[in-house]
Predict the 3D structure of the following.
Amino acid sequence: MKKSVIITLVSAISLSFAGIASAETQPDLLISDGKGEPKGGDIYGGPRGQSIRVSTIGSRPVSFHVGLQNDGDEADRIGVRGSGRDRKFLVRYTSGGENVTGQVVRGLRLGLEPDEAARIKATVKATRATKGRNARKAFRFSAISGKDRSKRDSALAFVLKRKSPGRN
Ligand SMILES: [Ca+2]
């Protein structure tokens, strides 16, 4: 009697684990300089294979794009975060023309259906503190599944500012 109760309990636990395992979740970050193919599609985890380099001269703004896709098989609320401004570089993030800089820097959640994607545009500009000097900064992006916090992704943009022959 006691033994059969245990067996029933064990099989109930196995069934519920099987149910969790069948629901795959996976955020996918991509990064693009707007010229070549985006990097990082179907690559998950560290920034290897999902990094770009962009360069600018003086105080000219330079842009790149961060894509987020739900590669899971059910709807997910995916947390996204990106690097903010510092002494050397200013950054502005927009999505559909709307300024989302504060949300991206603090971290925002995007509800995405399977295969649905969102895109964030980053515009970076060197500050006056870099005047007359070269400067560089790595802008880092991370995404995390709202359903399974072990399912993450990342992407990276190295921004290089070269001093202009003139004032900047
Ligand atoms: Ca990716």
User: Anything to note?
Assistant: Residues 24-162 form a domain with the Immunoglobulin-like fold (CATH 2.60.40.10). The helical segments are 2-22, 101-106. The pocket of calcium ion is lined by residues 28-30, 40, 43-44, 50, 153 (CB under 6 Å).
